[in-house]
Amino acid sequence: MPAPYLLLDMPPADFTNMFDYQTKNMAAVHNSFIQGINAMVAHAPKITPVKVQPFMIFSLAVVETIHHHHDMEETFLFPELKKKLGAGVLSQNVAQHKEFVPQLLELKEYLAAVKAGGAHDGQLLVQVVHSSGDTMMQPVFSTSYTRDRI
User: Fold this and answer.
1) What is the rounded average pLDDT of the residues 11-25?
2) For the residues 142-147, what does the mean pLDDT come to?
3) Which InterPro entries match (predicted)?
4) Are 97 and 70 in contact (CB under 8 A)?
5) What are the residues whose beta carbons fall under 8 Å from the beta carbon of 106, sequence distance 6 or more?
6) How far is Cα 104 from Cα 100, in angstroms, rounded to an integer?
7) 3-class DSSP state for residue 119?
8) Which of 101, 25, 98 is nearest to 63 (CA)?
9) What is the separation of C-alpha 21 from the centre of its chain, rounded to a whole number of angstroms?
10) Would you call 26 exposed, middle or buried from its count of C-beta atoms within 10 A (0-12, 13-18, 19+)?
11) What CA–CA distances, in Å, run from 96 to 1, 15, 91, 124, 128?
12) DSSP string across 125-150
């Protein structure tokens, strides 16, 4: 599915309720990832040479933030949820992360190469995002599925 990706619906939760906060916050964070990817796809073909470096910095920040977020989930959040909910509850999430990380790293390598002086090809960047979009975005979209099970 090509970008632009639709934002997740916000769960009917109250930020002031400590039990609802994590659910609503996770949806908001994942929506920021979706907006970042959408912005990359929307702007990549229109970037002028003078704006390539700022755009690469922005794009790398988006990709690195997504990667960091998922590393933190697997390192800290998932093990705690596993203790509370039992083994296997998050196995789909872990499998999705393992599937999309190589594609996320491929995108990061491309962005880093351009930032280091390589040629910027906006259409190629869009193609890279679109070719891995289904796999990269599945963990983002399945958050509501996991949230409903928890």
Assistant:
1) 80
2) 53
3) Dimeric_xanthone_biosynth (IPR053206), Hemerythrin-like (IPR012312)
4) yes
5) 128, 132
6) 6
7) coil
8) 101
9) 20
10) buried
11) 16, 28, 9, 24, 18
12) HHHHHHHHHHHHHHHHHTHHHHHHH-
Largest separation between any pair of C-alpha atoms in the chain: 52
Structure tokens at 148: 């409903």
Q: What is the CB neighbour count within 10 angstroms for residue 81?
A: 16
Query: Hey, where are the domains in the chain?
Result: 18-149
CA angle 112, 116, 119 (to 5 degrees): 90
Residue 52 near residue 117, CB atoms below 8 Å: no
Q: Does residue 101 have a pLDDT over 60?
A: yes
pLDDT score for 99: 83
CATH for 18-149, among 3.40.190, 1.20.120, 1.20.58, 3.40.395?
Answer: 1.20.120
> Do the Cβ atoms of 37 and 62 come closer than 8 Å?
yes
CA distance 87 to 74: 14
5 pLDDT higher than 60: yes
